Amino acid sequence: MTEELKKMLVPDELSAVVEKILQGNRINREEALQLIKIASPGLLGLLADKIRSEKNGAYVWYVHNFHIEPTNICIHRCKFCAFRSEITGDAWELSLEEIREIVSNADRSAGEVHITGGVHPDRDLEYYIRLIRLIREVRPDLHIKAYSAVEIDDMAQRAGVTPREILVQLKEAGLDALPGGGAEIFAPELRKVICPDKTDAAGYLAIHRDAHKLGIFSNATMLYGHFENWEQRIDHILKVRDLQDETGGFKAFIPLKFRRMNNSMSEIEEGSLVDDLRVFAISRILLDNVDHIKAYWPMLGKSVTGLLLGFGVDDIDGTINDSTQIYSRAGAEEKNPVMTVTEFEAMSAGQGRKAVLRNADYQEIVL
Ligand code: V47
Question: What residues contact residue 365 under an 8 Å CB cut-off, 6+ apart?
Answer without folding.
Answer: 111, 357, 358, 359
